[in-house]
């Protein structure tokens, strides 16, 4: 490693992704909006000193503050700019040569009472080359002048940010006759002199003039598009201005998708406690393992001298094995969480911005489709939406969503609305399965016990709670888990409240079916009311302790938006389950192996309607022009494509009798895959891409994906193991565990309050 100074990388290295997207080496660059730029530069004084190239950079910079600024005025004179609303002052000072006049101006800031700029951007050389016809004497004088200026700049750098902009290459073929003496060879000589002289007296000091050399790399790729061979095209100037903004503002604004120049966040009190807990778990597990190994050696099978029989080793007590299993799980989890922290909180691994290309999205989609079809097997049962089929459904949907996230298409969702709308259907389909699966369980089993509720809540939330602690993120940040958790509790409450109507009771009296339908209508009415009453919804979830779970950035608007986006689909899942189970009970469908679900005529008609409905939704999604309007219609129409898919997948007997074991394997760990991607596959909380192997994008994706999938699978196993220990079937033991969990969350809330107070 060259060190973790990402500012140095931002100022000196990078590459283009496509034609206009600049990717700094090892870190992510934030695209600042006008409001963000103003908030960062409020009450700041910034100065650009130099020639026409620096003037271009000056204009690109102030356009980040006020896009309405026009490039007008005296080109060979000083140009002031002021934004009174934010008290920002930016000046361009015309000093085309590094000479005594420039030195005198810089010296006035070091000695006089004049206000010192917070940011100083300096650069000049091409005028010296032009005026003196590229003579060696001019270069020698340039070295003398910059040597006299360097100590002054270094003195200013103690309290201000000082940047020396190296000269960009020129496109010699396009230069006018009066500029033919400005060659790239001469420019390189002037740049070498500047780099060698600057900071020569402060190499071991923190007060350094920052050399802005990245502009050279950008110019090498874009100078051919220059209008005169000397000045950069507008897109390149804008990139340089955005880099300047990132260098100065990232440490102030701390944008999630701007990892360049951001220091590693300090460990919070809760993170330190989590680190101690996992460390003690690892030590405890190692001690118990050593004790068991020694006991095994002492008690291992040995031949009885009298009888010649082998004695069996003593068996450990159940309590010891449970403790060992608990410590073993926490030991593995501790190592995995260390990897999470190193990937997305420490400045150890590189992060890069996403960049969308059609090939990065569609080629992986085709690839996994081929693999999924290749691993086709017969199902154990041929019921509608059997376990293997739902695992398969979750698996391929999760893989498509992962590809959607890593490809970067999410950043351009407005331009690719059809893809976005189909991905929204996949998320809705997960919630449809939530409604279908939990309703079916409660309706058939009639099990409304605390054990079932605790098991589901633990499996859904365990990983997220751990990540909230280790990664210092709010619960609502992992929005999908709160979503399915709340919907599970809504389903449970709907069916568990008096009167409890289950299949066994309804079979004895058909009127109970109408009672259940009445419950579902009441649920639908509540959903409809809350979706159009944002104030009521926010009041409900603003009460403590719900507010601690569902607030993001100080309010619950994000939670309301997420809930509202798929508000009806869980109800549709419950209703579908009710209708399907009723048809199954009255033997109105055929679920034998190879048999169509209905009679041939009915099956063909339904299949035709399903295909038409499926395609109709896709056509509607393709015609979407406005994301907001499409999101408004999505809750009502997404069920069309979901139901169409379910019928197409289940009406033909052969299709219902096979499944893809490849997709089903991923489906079993779909929740872990969705959550883990935030930090160990993507980076910067999903805004970028984790880079384990720099310089080899494809190989990096293969390696990071392999680790990511293995970690998700391991966490799934750990969650299942801990669920058996933490949530026992015995009610009295379970009550004690629940009291312990309540105590844990109370302590967590207390330490969180202390932590927040120390931050403020």
UniProtKB/TrEMBL annotation:
Residues 22-92 form the NXPE C-terminal domain. Keywords: Acyltransferase, Glycoprotein, Golgi apparatus, Membrane, Transferase, Transmembrane, Transmembrane helix. It is an enzyme of class 2 (transferase). It is found in: Golgi apparatus membrane. GO terms for cellular component: Golgi membrane. The chain crosses the membrane at residues 269-291, 355-375, 395-413, 425-444, 450-470, 477-499, 511-530, 565-583, 603-621, 663-684, 696-715, 735-754. GO terms for biological process: carbohydrate metabolic process. Residues 253-738 form the Cas1p 10 TM acyl transferase domain. Its main location: Golgi. InterPro entries: Cas1_AcylTrans_dom, NXPE4_C. It catalyses: CMP-N-acetyl-beta-neuraminate + acetyl-CoA = CMP-N-acetyl-9-O-acetyl-beta-neuraminate + CoA; CMP-N-acetyl-beta-neuraminate + acetyl-CoA = CMP-N-acetyl-7-O-acetyl-beta-neuraminate + CoA; a ganglioside GD3 (d18:1(4E)) + acetyl-CoA = a ganglioside Ac-O-7-GD3(d18:1(4E)) + CoA. Its EC number is 2.3.1.45. GO terms for molecular function: N-acetylneuraminate 9-O-acetyltransferase activity. It is a multi-pass membrane protein. Belongs to the PC-esterase family. CASD1 subfamily. This is N-acetylneuraminate (7)9-O-acetyltransferase. It comes from Pachyramphus minor. The lineage of its organism: Eukaryota, Metazoa, Chordata, Craniata, Vertebrata.
């Amino acid at each position: 490693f060259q060190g973790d100074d990402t500012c140095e990388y931002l100022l000196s290295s990078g590459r283009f992704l496509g034609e206009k997207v600049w990717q700094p080496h090892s870190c992510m660059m934030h695209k600042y909006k006008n409001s963000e730029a103003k908030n960062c530069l409020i009450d700041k004084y910034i100065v650009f000193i130099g020639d026409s190239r620096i003037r271009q950079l000056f204009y690109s910079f102030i356009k980040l503050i006020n896009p309405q600024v026009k490039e007008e005025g005296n080109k060979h004179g000083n140009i002031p700019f002021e934004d009174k609303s934010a008290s920002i002052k930016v000046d361009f000072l015309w000093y085309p040569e590094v000479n005594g006049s420039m030195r005198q101006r810089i010296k006035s800031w070091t000695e006089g009472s004049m206000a010192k700029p917070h940011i100083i951007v300096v650069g000049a050389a091409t005028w010296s080359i032009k005026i003196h016809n590229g003579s060696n004497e001019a270069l020698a004088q340039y070295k003398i002048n910059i040597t006299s200026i360097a100590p002054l700049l270094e003195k200013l750098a103690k309290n201000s940010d000082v940047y020396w902009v190296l000269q960009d290459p020129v496109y010699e073929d396009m230069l006018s006759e009066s500029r033919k003496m400005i060659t790239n060879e001469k420019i390189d000589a002037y740049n070498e002199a500047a780099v060698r002289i600057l900071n020569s007296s402060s190499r071991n000091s923190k007060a350094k003039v920052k050399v802005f050399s990245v502009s050279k790399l950008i110019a090498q790729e874009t100078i051919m598009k220059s209008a005169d061979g000397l000045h950069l095209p507008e897109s390149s100037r804008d990139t340089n201005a955005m880099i300047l903004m990132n260098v100065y503002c990232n440490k102030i604004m701390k944008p999630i998708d701007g990892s360049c120049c951001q220091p590693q966040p300090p460990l919070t009190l809760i993170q330190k406690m989590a680190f101690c807990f996992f460390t003690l778990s690892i030590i405890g597990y190692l001690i118990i393992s050593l004790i068991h190994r020694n006991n095994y050696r002492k008690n291992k099978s040995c031949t009885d001298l009298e009888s010649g029989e082998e004695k069996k080793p003593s068996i450990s007590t159940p309590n010891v094995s449970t403790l060992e299993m608990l410590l073993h799980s926490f030991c593995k989890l501790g190592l995995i969480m260390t990897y999470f922290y190193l990937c997305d909180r420490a400045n150890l691994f590189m992060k890069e911005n996403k960049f969308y290309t059609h090939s990065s999205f569609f080629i992986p989609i085709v690839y996994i489709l081929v693999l999924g079809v290749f691993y086709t097997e017969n199902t154990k049962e041929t019921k509608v939406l059997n376990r293997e089929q739902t695992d398969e459904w979750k698996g391929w949907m999760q893989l498509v969503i992962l590809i959607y996230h890593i490809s970067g298409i999410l950043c351009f969702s407005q331009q690719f609305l059809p893809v976005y709308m189909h991905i929204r259907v996949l998320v809705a389909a997960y919630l449809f399965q939530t409604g279908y699966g939990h309703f079916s369980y409660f309706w058939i089993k009639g099990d409304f016990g605390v054990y079932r509720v605790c098991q589901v809540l633990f499996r859904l939330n365990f990983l997220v709670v751990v990540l909230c602690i280790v990664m210092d993120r709010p619960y609502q940040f992992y929005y999908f888990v709160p979503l399915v958790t709340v919907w599970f509790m809504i389903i449970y409450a709907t069916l568990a409240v008096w009167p409890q109507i289950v299949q066994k009771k309804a079979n004895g009296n058909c009127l109970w079916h109408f009672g259940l339908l009445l419950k579902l209508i009441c649920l639908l009415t509540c959903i409809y009311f809350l979706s159009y009453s944002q104030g009521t919804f926010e009041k409900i979830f603003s009460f403590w302790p719900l507010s601690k779970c569902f607030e993001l950035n100080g309010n619950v608007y994000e939670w309301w938006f997420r809930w509202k986006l798929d508000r009806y689909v869980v109800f549709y899942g419950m209703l579908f389950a009710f209708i399907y189970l009723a048809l199954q009970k009255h033997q109105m469908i055929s679920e034998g192996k190879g048999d169509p679900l209905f009679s041939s005529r009915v099956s063909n008609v339904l299949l035709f309607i399903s295909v038409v409905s499926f395609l109709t939704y896709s056509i509607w999604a393709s015609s979407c022009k406005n994301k907001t309007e499409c999101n408004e219609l999505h809750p009502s129409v997404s069920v069309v494509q979901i139901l169409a898919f379910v019928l197409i997948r289940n009406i033909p007997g052969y299709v219902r009798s096979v499944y893809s074991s490849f997709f089903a394997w991923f489906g079993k760990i779909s929740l872990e895959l969705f959550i883990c991607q935030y930090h160990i596959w993507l980076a910067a909380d999903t805004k970028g891409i984790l880079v384990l192997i720099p310089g080899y994008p494809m190989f990096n994706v293969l390696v990071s994906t392999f680790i990511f999938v293995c970690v998700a699978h391991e966490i799934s196993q750990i969650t299942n193991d801990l669920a058996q220990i933490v949530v026992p079937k015995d009610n009295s033991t379970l009550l004690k565990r629940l009291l312990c969990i309540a105590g844990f969350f109370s302590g967590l809330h207390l330490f969180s309050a202390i932590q927040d107070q120390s931050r403020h």
